[in-house]
Amino acid sequence: MDNAKAPSNAIVLEFKEDTALTEMMRLRVSSLQRSGQKRQDGERLLLPHEAVYRLDFSTQELNFSRWYFSLIAYGRVTITGISQHWTPDLTNLMTRQLLEPIGTIWRNADDPEDSPLKWLEADMQEFGERIAELAKVRKVMYFLFAFKDGAEAANLSCSVEFTPDN
């Protein structure tokens, strides 16, 4: 989870915001609010401080190596994997499709600006291994990023490193 140089055979994938999917999920929330309807039983609606991100896998036989994060300023970012193949026009996001563990990185407001980010190392290791496992059957995987305590998407850089499974 540092800025060390990746090995030559490493594959570093950057999380990219899926703005179209985020917008579609926001439209679902506003549609329910306008019509006065309730969400489906078990449905997970996108919260205002959340966005949908994705990883695209060009290679699917991968082993997790490490995380790379950069968060300017302070705040907390949680990353939750989503197990479904996404068809937002046909299916809504259901709570049961959210994966454990979640990844959390943060820097407290009273920490010096040059202080390293904090994270739960065992959870982040397991989360990375889970992503590599799902990559074996996926070409794309989706994630919910939640920005809290002052964190903003514009201040975050997040990628994950894998090595090919030879």
TrEMBL record:
Lineage start: Eukaryota, Metazoa, Chordata, Craniata, Vertebrata
Protein name: Olfactory marker protein a
GO terms under biological process: sensory perception of smell; signal transduction
Taxonomic source organism: Dicentrarchus labrax (European seabass)
Pfam families: Olfactory_mark
Coiled coil regions in record: none
Matches recorded under SUPFAM superfamilies: Olfactory marker protein
